[in-house]
Amino acid sequence: MGLMEALIFLCKGQFWRMAVFWTVSLILSYLQLFSQTHLSRKSKLFDRCSSISSSAIRKPICIITGSYLILVVGKSDGLSSNGDIKLPCQSPVIDEIVGSSQADVFDTLKSATLRLWIKFNSKTSTTTVLALLDRVTWYLLPVQATSGLGAAVSYALAKEGYCVILAGRSLHSLSKVASEIKEQIDDACVKAFQVDLSSYKSILSFKHSLQQWLLDSDLHCSVQLLINNAGILATSYRVTTEQCDQMVSTNYIGPFCLTKLLLPLLEQSPIPSRVVNVTSFTHRNVSSMEVTRETISGQWFSKLSSYPYAHVYEYSKLCLLLFTYELHRQVGLAEKSHSVSVIAADPGVVKTNIMREIPSCLSWLAFFVLKLLGLLQSPEVGITSVLDAVHAPPETSGVYFFGGNGRTLRSSQLSYNSKLAKDLWDASSQIFLERQLASRDTT
Predict the structure, then answer these.
(1) Residue ranges per domain, the chain?
(2) Belongs to which family (predicted)?
């Protein structure tokens, strides 16, 4: 059954777009980096400098976002040789289960009184749902909010003396990561907060909780570093409670709203503060882009016969990059924001669970080929470009870090389209304002 689903997946054009286009764009990025470093005189390397040395603040606050917990329901294929549950490649009927937290879900499962909000595909009939629930074997697929790249960055910055704030959907997973960091680093300051980046209300609640925690902890009510690291690759169209595409909402709209809400705290910092947006080389595959409300929210993709997940991922990462450059320009114009810098960081290909919705045999093959080509990195190596962005001199802003060793690269030509970036900013700000007003009305 798993093999058949993998073969069906293999026949889809979106998979081959990932396999071919993404690999080519990655190789071209490294060739451009090589040419810029060894053949061009314009190459500039940024040395790392410490943000901890200032006496104006006791511990710099760093916020790292991660993907939320997804609980998938479907039929189990049994157990593998190491005891793990064998999961099917995709569930054709049920998209996901939305629970409160991983700990709550597992505790409730034990007592067999689980109440779940099940979101079904729009084409699923009630009869099909009831029939499926009668015969289905339930399993849970937890996706840690700060696994892979996020966990590696968290550990590195906690070791350097940052007070690290982990923000993600699964408070249980986040708390586990925080505990592991504290076990390895004696004086580590790590705090976990629950937030769903696809929900404005959740982001707003996180901001209020963060401010209260800073006051209770006798810390300066400001933020020195925000790393927008959250990102998912969803292979099916899913709509959020705010009627947006889940992938676009998590990869772009959520980070946009979070940054807008936290900008006052970044501006209040007594030392230079920074926003680091973790983007991807896949943005280079977007050749044109139209800014409308439907495209920004991702609602336009629901009208297509099949969900173009590779295109949507590329689009969301280009939006994040355009947002980075436009925020850099906006910050430069604002007098009170002159000490806030904005940087994009591209870790390249890192072995994480980003391809968790791709059939396991195909994702394994992809990682194997990338490893043979020397393009696959571990999270510990992949974080170098992110750390380069974090530790670049305070005056550094509006640049794209790639390849480690303090190296920067020019992103795609489309990403430097200032009119497109301004249109995207205006349209996104309108969505942000509408959600802000709606949140006030409900409270």
Answers:
(1) 14-22+52-68+145-442, 71-142
(2) Belongs to the short-chain dehydrogenases/reductases (SDR) family.
